[in-house]
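seq:
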Amino acid sequence: MGKVTADNWLASYLSLFRYIDAHQNFCHHVVDSHAYSEFDDFILETIDLIVERLKQSLKQACPQLHFRNESGLLLFEYGLQGIVRNWFRSGLRENPALVVEGIGPVSQRQLAMLLETESLLTKVSVKQQLASV
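struct:
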């Protein structure tokens, strides 16, 4: 996944979709083996890693930042997890880039509000972030 920044966190989220798409046979076998919770945990842990790396990056850029809304971040992560789960359950039919692009503006604003870093997270548009992938 590499470094996650305010300028590429959506691209990192898109990489989760692409990973699942590239390994969909394995993912289906995991789910079919009644180990769906393992697959679900993988999705949530990956999203949590993205958010944690983003927080670290923002803290490096602006050391005076204090993140106070951990429960709100957890809710945000569960929402992102639900989007991946629904995409997977619906047969991976939608283009992942379009899914992420569609939720990007709302997710960007939500995350900026939760991290109280509006100016740091809204510099790069969703399309610019996803164009780099």
